[in-house]
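Hi both,

Apologies for the delay on this - the queue was longer than expected. I finally got the adenosine-5'-triphosphate-bound model through. Below you'll find the protein sequence and the ligand SMILES exactly as submitted, and right after that the C-alpha cells for the full complex including the ligand.
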Amino acid sequence: MLRFVFHYYSKYKKDIVLALLLSLLNSFMTVVCSQFLKDVIKGTLAGKSSFLAGKIAQILCLTLIWVVVIYSSKLVTGKLSIQMTGSLRQDVIEKIMNMRYDYLMGQQKGTFLNKLNEDISDVSRYFEQLLFSVFLNGISVLVILVYLFATDWKLTLISMIWIPFTTILYHNFLNSIADFTREKKKQQDALTAKTQELFECYETEKSYNLQEINLSEINTNIWRVYQADLKRQKKEAMTNAFSSMIRCLPVLFCSIFAAGMVIKGALSAENFISFLVLLGFISSPISNFTSVLVELNKAGVSADRLRRLLEAPEESRGGNITSLLFSDPVIQLQDICFSYDGLNPILNNLSFELKKGERIAFVGGSGSGKTTLMNLILGLFEPQKGNYFLYGTQVSDLDIKLVRGCFSIVSQETFLFPDTIEQNLLYGNRSATRAEIEKAAGDAGLASFIESLPEGYDTVLEENGVNLSGGQRQKFAIARALLRNSEVIIFDEPTSALDPKSEKEITELIETTLSSKTIISVAHKLNTVLDYDRIYLMDHGNLKEQGSHQELLGKKGLYYQLFHSQNGMGRDLV
Ligand SMILES: Nc1ncnc2c1ncn2[C@@H]1O[C@H](COP(=O)(O)OP(=O)(O)OP(=O)(O)O)[C@@H](O)[C@H]1O
C-alpha cells in the first residue's frame, strides 16, 4: 500500500525536497531556541542581567523566522496533498472510463460512486498526514534526538526506553482498529446501497406501501453501522489514552532522574531545563505520531480499495488500424462465443452477416443474449472464440475508437443532461453546426416541440429530462444518432418503455427518416420489426431461426409461437 502512496509522492519530487528542507530548518530552529534558553538561564544564574535585553531581541527575531518556516512548511505540504488528491482523482476517473465494461457493470452505481468519494477523501488525508506528521515530524524528532544524545546520552536513553514496548502494543491496537474499520465500511456500504435503492424505487415503494418495511431495514443497517463504529471508537479511545501516557511518562521519569543528577552535580541546571524543553518538543510529535498512525490505519483501508480499483482490468484499446475502407458487408460474425464468467456460455457459435442498407432484428425471450450481442458488436466485450469482421477487417485489429465511431445507439433509456437542448443534441456530434442541429431535431420530429418553448434550443432540460415524455426522450436519441451520421444505427428496444401512440410514432420515424441507414434492432414487440430484411430469433444464446417475417411464420416454429402469443391467432399475414 505504501508503494501506491509513494507513486503519488514521486510525482512531486521538487515540492517534497522543499518540504524536507523546511522540516530540517524547523528542527534546527528548535535546537537554536533551546540553546538560547540555556544561555539565558546560565546568565540569570550567574547574576548577569545586562545581556537579557539583547537576548530577548534575538529570540523575537528567531521566533519570527520560525513562524515563517512553520507557515511555509504547512503550505507546501497542504499544496502537495491537494495536488496528489487531484492526481489520484484523475487516475480514478480515467480508470473508470477505460475499465472493462463487464467489470463496471458488476458494480452498484450509487454505492460505487459514494465509496469512491469517501475513499478519495480518506486517502487525501493520508497523503497529508503521512507526509507532515510522519515523515517531516519524524525528521524533526530525529534531528532533536541526535542533539539530545550528544548533550546527554544517558538521559536521552532513559526517556526513550519506552518506545520499543509501546510500538509492539500499538501494533496490536492498530491491527484491531483496521479490522473494525473494514467492518464499519462494509456496513456503511450496505446502508448507502439501501438508501440509494429507496430513491431508485421511490414509486414502487409508495405503490406497494413498503415504507415501514424499508424503514425497519434501514434502521437495522444504521444499527449495524453504529455497532461497528462503536467498537472502532472504543479501540481508538484506548489508543489515544495510551498515547497521552506516552507523552507524559518519559518527561516525568526523565525529570526525576535528571533532578537527581543536578543534586549530585552531574548535570547543570541550564542543561536540565533545556533538555526538558527539547523533550517536550519531541514528546508531542511522538505521541501525535500514534494518533496519526490510527488515522493512517483507517485511511489505509480506503487506499487499499482504491489501489484494487486502479488495478482492475481495462478494456482493450484494439489494434493499430485507424481507418477503414467502408466495403460490404458491414458486419460479419463467424462462430462467435461469449461468456461473462468463462463458465456459463451466453452466446454460442453465432454467425450472421449485415450488408449496407439492410435492416435486421434480433428477437427472443428475456435473457436470450440480445443485449450482450449488441454490446459485443459495439466492441464493449471481446468474444472468447470466433471472428468479428467490420467492413472486412478483424475488429481486434481496429482501433477501438474507430469501431465505436461506426455505430450510433438508441437504447431503452435516453440519458439527458441538465443542460440546454442544444448541448444535449451536440452530444451526438460535438462539431455539429446550429443548422445541422436544427435539421436533425426536425427530422427526429422534435422541431415543433422545441420551437414551442420560450427559449427554444437554449431551454435547459431538467435532470435526465424528467419533464419530457418517453417518446420525446427517444426522439432526442434519434436526433443525436442523425447528428452522429454513422452508417449503422443500433436500436436496443427503443419503444419498450413507450405507450402505443409514442411507439407508433417512433417506429414510423425509424422507417421514414432513417430509411437509408443500416439498422440493427433488438425488439421484444415483433410488430415493430415486421418489414425488416431479416429477423433472428435468439434462444439461450443461439440463433434458433432466421428469415423474413413471412418466412419465419412459414416455419411454424418458435417465432410463429412468439408472434401468436403477442398478437393472437389469425394474424399471420401482416
Ligand atoms: N454483466 C453481466 N454479468 C454476468 N451475466 C450477465 C451480465 N449481463 C447479462 N448477463 C446474463 O447474460 C444473459 C443474457 O443477458 P442479456 O441482457 O444479453 O439478454 P437479453 O436477451 O438482452 O435480455 P432482455 O431481453 O431481458 O434485455 C442473461 O442470463 C443475463 O443474466
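Main takeaway for now: The pocket of adenosine-5'-triphosphate is lined by residues 102, 105, 340, 346, 366-372 (CB under 6 Å).

I'll put the files on the shared drive as well.

H.
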